[in-house]
Design a protein that fits this description.
With 192 residues, the protein is an alpha/beta fold. It folds into two domains: 121 residues, Beta-carbonic Anhydrase, Chain A; 34 residues, no CATH class. Helix content is 37%, strand content 15%. Strands 2-1-3-4-5 form a five-stranded mixed beta sheet. The longest helix is centred in the first third of the chain and has 14 residues. It is globular and about 50 Å long. The relative contact order is 0.16. The mean pLDDT is 95. Belongs to the beta-class carbonic anhydrase family.
Length: 192
């Protein structure tokens, strides 16, 4: 049985047993939060539990390393949709210690891509189109600095509503301990 077949078989029983009832909520986050976190598997259940958040309390946006790599990319768009259309009022960027993005090298990523069949021609086409793969694929040296950078991109976005606090935190993926990096309440500024 493939992974897909296994998931679909389980799902039929899940629905038939009405197990979805325990997860019913609305599309609006009860605690009016949008959280950008890393996609690390250790955070799936730990992050909400460590923050006392339940299903329906927050909008969860994920990216490798909790990075906002482009101010007009899909991560930032998702944050803005949560703020403007889904009643979120605060943003939290939550990075984590022992993040795999701190070990990512653009050169290694490109080599792995080539090993799995991506041709030099394809890479050259992207470079000629103006895509800097070494910048796009790179990781970071300091998770704390990376969280600060993502907070800066969000906080300084020209479409961010006035008065929205953007916080930065780090979570320990083993214990769930949160460390404050940026207190967004201290940084709220609105031009009048």
């Amino acid at each position: 049985m493939t992974k897909l077949e296994e998931i679909l078989a389980y799902n039929r029983g899940f629905v038939a047993r009405g197990e979805y009832e325990a997860f019913k909520t609305t599309k609006f986050p009860d605690k009016r939060l949008v959280i950008l976190s890393c996609m690390d598997t250790r955070l799936e259940e730990l992050l909400p539990k460590a923050m006392n958040l339940r299903n329906g309390d927050f909008k969860h946006v994920k990216s490798a390393g909790a990075i906002v790599s482009h101010p007009f990319g899909s991560v930032m768009r998702s944050i803005l949709v949560a703020l403007y259309a889904l009643n979120a009022e605060e943003v939290m960027v939550v990075g984590h210690y022992d993040c795999g993005m701190s070990m990512i090298s653009a050169e290694d990523m490109l080599n792995r891509m080539k090993q799995q069949g991506i041709t030099d021609e394809t890479i050259s086409l992207l470079l000629n189109a103006g895509i800097n793969l070494k910048t796009w694929l790179r990781g970071f040296d300091s998770v704390e600095e990376s969280v600060k950078r993502s907070v800066e991109v969000i906080s300084n976005h020209p479409l961010l509503p006035c008065g929205v606090p953007v916080h930065g935190l780090l979570i320990n993926p083993e214990t769930g301990q949160l460390d404050l990096v940026v207190n967004g309440y201290e940084r709220i500024a609105c031009d009048e």
